[in-house]
């Protein structure tokens, strides 16, 4: 069976990252998010000679995915109080990394305009997770240990950053447009586990997995 990729876009606090992580675990594949940015950040500052050295390390470290697994996670690449500022070089490297992953393995990729970068590939399923504001606020309070006011501000600022980022790098498309995605799910109505199950069933319908491939706890 050929490689497949599931991309995730998500509203802050909707549980999209958790859904992506659970899906990857149950399918026995990797979930990539911040390590993509870590490597892209390193590459974007390298001269040609150093870039070739990085490529050589990737070839000799047991494959591209093994190289990615060895990278540290980027802890806070989005400053919640900063406006979006474009970095075309960074996005160029990031896109190359996403394309490389899609060619080499089945995986889950969170954010990074991955649905747009991999647009048109028959082995890609794109998912958008959203939920009502009150649900996202409550989840943010519980997961970050912040006040309701801080949760609201964080959601507003982060979603604005993501919308501006997506619009810039997709040349005017908007992040919440449902036609960008195979599936758009409301995590409050469907539930976190329910979203995972629906995505798995869609992957079965598409012929990417079988029921027997799902590893449930």
Largest sheet: 5 strands, parallel
N-end to C-end Cα span: 24 Å
Please state the CA-atom Rg, rounded to the nearest Å.
17 Å
Q: Report the mean per-residue pLDDT as an integer.
A: 85
Strand content: 5-15%
Globular, elongated, flat, extended or rod-shaped: what is the shape? globular
Strand order of the largest sheet: 2-3-1-4-5
Number of strands: 5
The stretches of 5 or more residues where confidence is low (pLDDT under 50) are 74-79
Number of helices: 10
**Structural class from helices and strands?**
alpha/beta
Topology as H/E string? EHEHHHHEHEHHEHH
Helical proportion, percent range: 40-55%
Explain what this protein looks like in three dimensions.
This protein is 53% helix and 11% strand. It has helices spanning 16-27, 34-44, 48-60, 64-69, 88-104, 114-117, 133-144, 148-169, 187-190, 192-206; strands spanning 5-10, 30-32, 107-110, 124-130, 183-186. The longest helix has 22 residues, at 148-169. The radius of gyration is 17 Å and the shape is globular. The two termini are 24 Å apart.
Keywords, separated by commas or semicolons:
5-stranded parallel sheet
Q: Would you summarize the structure shown here?
A:
This protein is α/β, with parallel strands linked by helices.
